[in-house]
Inverse folding.
């Protein structure tokens, strides 16, 4: 008889080093409870606009189920190139400077693997989306978190960035409009860090998936700043603007040399993004603006509603200008983010995400998404008010 | 009020009211960040200028046992000197049985929606009041069997989908 073994020993060191997902237990708690209102969802509460879904269905009926070019359907890359030229005057060659990926998540992984050598440092601005650190670690790089603060409206400043830069720094990951804070960087804010980026010869990996969700001002792509385009990878996708999360479609735009390097990895690992989603994405770019703007106006109204509600229940919150998140400060309750979120869930059945899930800089805060119906938001705010009143007694 | 380049705030107000005519100025203020007074003034202006035509409820009469019968009726009409489509439409829309009147391109000139208490009711109304008008050459009556969507509101089984309760 052959000896039995413990299969966990086969798991590679790279994976073992990854930080444990603190949210797992929380997730289980949420699914066990009934009548929970969740403000913990990181995706639109709209289904994909019907004209986009209908185009996907039509393509399936016609039998369009083959592989596409590794770079993605030429029509989609053409449409992307025209869209960004029209929106920002940015010039990306559809033949060589655009890569269509399976969600922004894949684009992020490709971007980091394409530029980072083992041992090189990558600055990750926090609080931010949870995948950046693990993506750097899996590529053998060393993530260097840099914390932004509510006082700075969660924008990255030169004073915050500079001390984190060393000779080993290869790249910086930016995420504006920001998940979880809803912060944005204006052109002036970006100008302030652009000199440092060039001086230290960094690659900018800019996750701009919430690009279209800005309120009261136009988004500024990092690549639109003078001198940054040839060192910037813009990562973006259709999930948030067009409510297409589950269709998994993203893209990267940047210098042809790096896009080609990303394409090499993509061709051996993913081959191409799902064709049905690519066809839906073309429809979204060509005919989706009106529906998208309607959804954005709806988010904007909820944003006002939630901020107004926080004000009434005495939660201090910086006014988000992008994405669909608020990031209220709960530190003065004496509870940690995790304690507050867990108490709120258990006692009042409102699910939120503890801010420290997005990095140390998020401790003392709570991510509350307003991608939920007004009815749900109203009840959630009442319950949060009750919870806070209960803490005071 | 002719709104050539629509103010973003006015668009918000109109979208909110088109979706829920009962939304109060206070509620609209919370949703837009405008002051209650600003909202009230804007709504008054929109009402006075006819941008907001009317406030009404969408009623499902079936549920209270009032089983109305609806028919879409196409009309072929001939125009007479000094009497255009407008005059024919006016003649027709004054009947309370007539719920909508539209001028069309294509096979028929005018389309009506008529509501009655029974098929017979509707048929007699059309035969007696509409078909007998001098300008009406022919009527084409289509009884409505079921309404799936009315004025942007889906009346049967709205779409639902599940999201993960927690995601980043």
């Amino acid at each position: 008889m052959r000896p039995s073994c413990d299969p966990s020993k086969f798991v590679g060191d790279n994976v073992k080093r990854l930080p444990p997902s603190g949210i797992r237990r929380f997730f289980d708690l949420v699914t066990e409870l009934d009548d929970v209102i969740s403000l913990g969802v990181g995706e639109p509460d709209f289904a994909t606009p019907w004209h986009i879904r209908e185009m996907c269905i039509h393509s399936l009926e016609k039998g369009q189920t083959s592989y596409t070019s590794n770079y993605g359907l030429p029509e989609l890359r053409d449409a992307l190139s025209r869209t960004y030229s029209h929106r920002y005057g940015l010039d990306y060659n559809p033949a060589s400077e655009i890569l269509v990926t399976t969600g922004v998540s894949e684009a992020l992984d490709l971007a980091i693997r394409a530029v980072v050598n083992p041992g090189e440092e990558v600055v990750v601005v926090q609080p931010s989306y949870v995948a950046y650190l693990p993506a750097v670690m899996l590529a053998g790089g060393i993530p260097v978190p840099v914390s932004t603060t509510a006082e700075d409206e969660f924008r990255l400043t030169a004073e915050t960035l500079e001390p984190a830069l060393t000779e080993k720094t290869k790249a910086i990951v930016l995420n504006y409009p920001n998940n979880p804070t809803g912060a944005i960087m204006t052109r002036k804010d970006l100008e302030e860090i652009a000199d440092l980026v060039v001086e230290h010869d960094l690659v900018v990996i800019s996750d701009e998936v919430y690009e279209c969700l800005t309120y009261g001002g136009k988004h500024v792509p990092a690549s639109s700043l003078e001198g940054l385009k040839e060192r910037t990878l813009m990562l973006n996708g259709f999930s948030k603007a067009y409510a297409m999360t589950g269709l998994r479609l993203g893209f990267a735009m940047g210098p042809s040399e790096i896009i080609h390097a990303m394409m090499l990895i993509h061709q051996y690992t993913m081959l191409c993004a799902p064709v049905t989603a690519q066809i839906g994405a073309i429809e979204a770019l060509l005919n989706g603006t009106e529906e998208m703007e309607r959804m954005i106006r709806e988010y904007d109204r909820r944003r006002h509603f939630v901020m107004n509600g926080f004000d009434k229940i005495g939660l201090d919150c910086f006014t988000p200008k992008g994405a669909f998140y608020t990031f209220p400060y709960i530190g003065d309750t004496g509870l940690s983010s995790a304690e507050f979120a867990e108490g709120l869930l258990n006692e009042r059945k409102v699910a939120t995400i503890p801010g420290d899930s997005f990095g140390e800089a998020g401790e003392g805060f709570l991510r509350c998404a307003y991608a939920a119906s007004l009815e749900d938001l109203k009840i959630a705010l009442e319950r949060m008010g009750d919870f806070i009143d209960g803490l005071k007694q | 009020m002719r709104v050539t380049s629509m103010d973003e705030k006015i668009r918000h107000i109109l979208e909110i009211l088109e979706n829920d005519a009962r939304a109060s100025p206070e509620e609209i203020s919370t949703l837009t960040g405008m002051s209650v007074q600003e909202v009230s003034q804007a709504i008054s202006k929109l009402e006075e200028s006819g941008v907001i035509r009317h406030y009404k409820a969408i009623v499902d009469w079936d549920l209270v046992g009032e089983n109305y019968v609806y028919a879409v009726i196409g009309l072929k009409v001939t125009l007479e000197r000094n009497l255009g489509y407008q005059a024919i439409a006016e003649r027709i829309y004054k009947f309370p049985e007539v719920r909508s009147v539209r001028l069309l391109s294509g096979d028929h000139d005018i389309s009506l929606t008529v509501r009655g208490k029974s098929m017979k009711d509707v048929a007699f109304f059309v035969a007696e009041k509409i078909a007998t008008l001098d300008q009406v050459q022919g009527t084409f009556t289509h009884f409505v069997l079921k309404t799936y969507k009315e004025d942007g509101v889906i009346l049967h089984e709205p779409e639902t989908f599940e999201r993960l309760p927690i995601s980043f």
